[in-house]
Amino acid sequence: MLRFGIRNRPRRLSKAMGRKEDGHGTGPPGRLERMTIIVNSLVRHERIEGSHQYMDEARGYTERLLQIAAQGDKNHEAMDVANYWLKDKDLIHKLFKVLVPRYENYTTCATRMWTLPVEYPGGKNKTSILELKGNPWPPVVPNPRNNSKSLINVLLHNAKKDYRSASKDGTPV
Amino acid sequence: MVVSSRSLSKLFTSTSRRRFCSKAEGLSNAEITKKRNELFGREKARQLALITRVEKIEVEHVGPPENCRLLMNKGLSTPFNCAMHIQENLMSRSVLALVNGQPWDLHRPLEDHCELKFLHFKDEDPALSNKAFWRTGSFLIGYTLERVFKDQHYVQLCSFPRPRVETGSFVYDAHLGISDWTPSQAELQCMSRVPAKLQFEDFKLERLTVDASLASKMFEDNKFKSSQIPFIAAKSKTGHSVTLYRMDDHVDISEGPLIASTALINRFNITAIHDIESEDYGSLKRVQGLSTPKQLPIHFWNYGILCERAAKLNPAPMPAQWNKEAMATRNNA
Amino acid sequence: MTNLATKCRNVIRLLHRHCAAINESLFSKSNGLHPALALDVAAPPSFKQQPSKPFSLNDLFADNIFWAAVPKKRRSYAKKWTRRFGPDKIRKFMTPRINLVSCLECGTWHERHSICGSCYEKVREETKAMQSSMNPEEFHYNHPRSEVAYVFHGEDANDHPDKYIVEVDKPRPDWWPKHMLTKGHGKYS
User: Fold this and answer.
1) pLDDT tens digit string along C46-104?
2) For residue range B134-172, what is the model confidence (pLDDT) as tens digits?
3) At C153, is the secondary structure helix, strand, or coil?
4) Is ipTM strictly over 0.90?
5) Do residue C111 and residue A90 have CB atoms under 8 angstroms apart?
6) Alpha carbons within 13 A on the beta-carbon side of C32
7) B99 lies in the same domain as B156
8) How far is CA A90 from the centre of its chain?
9) Are B79 and B209 within one domain?
10) Chain B nearest C-alpha distance from A159 (Å)
11) Where does C54-146 have alpha helices with state H?
């Protein structure tokens, strides 16, 4: 079970599927080839930027790869899958020795995506950042805001407190 | 003259009230509002005319979008004018300004060289903005009460307590000329329409510091306020000035900074009217309300829950008259 | 393609009765088809059997160009202008964008769902600087087989035992979140 939502059908990714010189598309194998390149890149760099559609597709594959690899490198199936997905063979070592122990106790998914801004007037393809959690780089949002003191949150927090103390006492809320 | 609280309470009990009812003199709520507004306008024009020579002050703006130095007019330029020079966003979202670290109304003229910061509701620590918003809520309940009854009942606003957001509602204690009235939900909703419409009007909340004598004249029809004014004036820096705020044509006394304009408000509800007994002022009505700002959207369901909580009696202290003993202890504290 | 050829042939038979002769010199006859319209399949046998025939309506109507879509009616100027300058084109630019917010840190405008570009710019540069401080051979071809710790100026490498240390030749930027530098005391940290 993956810990985040995925689309129930694969995206067609026409640019990946139409790569040959004779004008024909490479079809689903071409799409998968592009996915392996992205997953490979992600495992190496731990944070990559690219077209949103490709990143979103690759995210599912990365998660699944990490899930399968969690079975251990002695597992024949895990090694096969890793061998297919990671074209650079030094990354197979990284996968089993670094990433799998890192995500062993995670209750959330292992990747995160952010949407980059599009320059005015827009109309261009959305670009996104796909990153593995626990990477050594500075966080994408260095100082996330703490909104607990905003007016609405203060009102709601106190309303909650009131409700809980009232329901404890048994007084009608 | 020291007035004991017992004799004061005699002044304001229902039996003797009739002696001081302005309705007997023929002035209605609307006429009183008009009178106050005129006096305010005249005083404001007079104070503006005192500035004959325009001096320049240096204002250092700190914060997003950029730190910059502005050359503004002393006694005339407001933080809002500074925002006009910097970014439209600052104009529309700013609630208060921090002038040399002190909270300052956005439409209050700057007096000297200073460092300027703008506050809004989405700051990391919006405590000042929240308090100002709550205070404005009380102010707007006063506005509502003086309009909504039209000429049928003579409303005398008493006072409102210090703003505390944690209580879930803001409050105005007033003497409505109605006895034996429990407002129904429909009536409260009707009352709420008056302040709720203010979000579509960009009424600025203007501040003016006036002499206590002028304030007494403006509020001579309101027995509660006219007895409070000497004490408020004594507490001020000069010893005889009172801070007034005007929005649209409603004028009221308030100490602290209020928000910049009614366009910042999103929803406004008068949630309840409770009967309270004050030692000094007799029986009054505690009118409670709830409001949220436009910058912080809230789902109607959540807002409904907060309204239900705001309908419960606010635990703020009863309105009390200050006397010299209380003032002394306050000053010493 | 066979189906199409059959259909062509049926229509040709129909038209044969109604069409006048057309100048055959317009068309070169290599295999009965115009070179520009060569199909990527083997030509149907019936066409190949008549390579030297001077002209035939079969050849003429076998060309795809005659089956090309063609406008039936002249486009009125109203329709033309609506297409070029009408609501579908203008709406995109006339509707106010209400999803733009000003970044609370730096004031730059961006869409609500995206991160602030100027705030991220410094993060991106820092990431690049950190990545380049590792030996490029190692980073790209022989990635370390343990967790990597980047040690800036003034920091102690001994704080990161069991990690592959990479020394970065600059001080840690002051906007780095403090909670990431303190050691946690949780079960997994």
Assistant:
1) 545 555 667 777 777 776 677 788 999 999 999 999 999 999 888 888 888 889 999 99
2) 999 999 999 999 999 878 888 999 999 999 999 999 999
3) strand
4) no
5) no
6) 20
7) no
8) 22
9) no
10) 7
11) 57-62, 77-85, 87-94, 117-133, 136-141
In a domain, B253, yes or no: yes
Which residue matches tokens 């004014």?
B229
Query: Are both B160 and B31 inside the same structural domain?
Result: yes
CA distance B163 to B169: 9
Number of cross-chain residue pairs from A and B with Cβ atoms under 8 Å apart: 46
Cα B300 → chain centroid: 27
Q: Using only C-alpha atoms, what is the Rg of chain B? A: 20
| Alpha-helical runs (H) found in A20-150 | 27-45, 52-69, 76-85, 90-94, 100-102
Phi, psi of B285 (to 5 degrees): -110, 135
- Expressed as residue numbers, the domain containing B85 is 56-120
**Binned average pLDDT, 10 residues per bin, chain B of 333 residues:** 49 43 62 93 95 95 93 96 94 95 96 96 95 97 91 89 95 90 94 95 94 94 92 90 94 94 96 93 94 95 96 92 62 52
Q: Which residues contact C133 (CB under 8 A, 6 or more apart)?
A: C150, C166, C167, C168, C169
B268 closest CA partner among B169, B174, B175: B169
**Are B305 and B186 in a shared domain?**
yes
Task: Count structural domains, chain B.
Answer: 2
Is B47 part of any domain? no
- Residues B64, B187, single domain; the answer is no
Do residues A42 and A58 lie in contact, with contact meaning Cβ atoms separated by under 8 Å?
yes
- B238, B93: one domain: no
| Rounded Cα gap, residues A26 and A11, in angstroms | 14
Amino acid at A136: P
Would you call B264 helix, strand, or coil by DSSP? helix
Which of B92, B120, B148 terminates a domain? The answer is: B120
Probe site for chain C from B86, B88, B89, B294 (most C CB atoms < 10 A): B89
Does a structural domain hold residue B159?
yes
Residue carrying structure tokens 């991220």:
C120
Please give the model's pTM, rounded to 2 decimal places.
Answer: 0.80
Are the C-beta atoms of residues B180 and B275 closer than 8 Å to each other? no
Do residues B242 and B214 both lie within one domain? yes
DSSP conformation class of C37: G
CA distances from C159 to B24, C150, C183, C187 (A): 84, 11, 10, 18
Going by C-alpha positions, the residue among C40, C41, C58, C60 that lies closest to residue C49 is C58
Q: Cβ of C106 and B87 within 8 Å? A: no
* Residues 81 through 110 of chain C touching chain B, CB cutoff 8 Å: 102-108
Q: What's the DSSP call for residue C183?
A: P
User: Does residue B194 share a domain with residue B141?
Assistant: yes
**In a mutagenesis test of the C interface, which of A46, A132, A140, A145 is the best target, namely the one with the most C β-carbons within 10 Å?**
A140
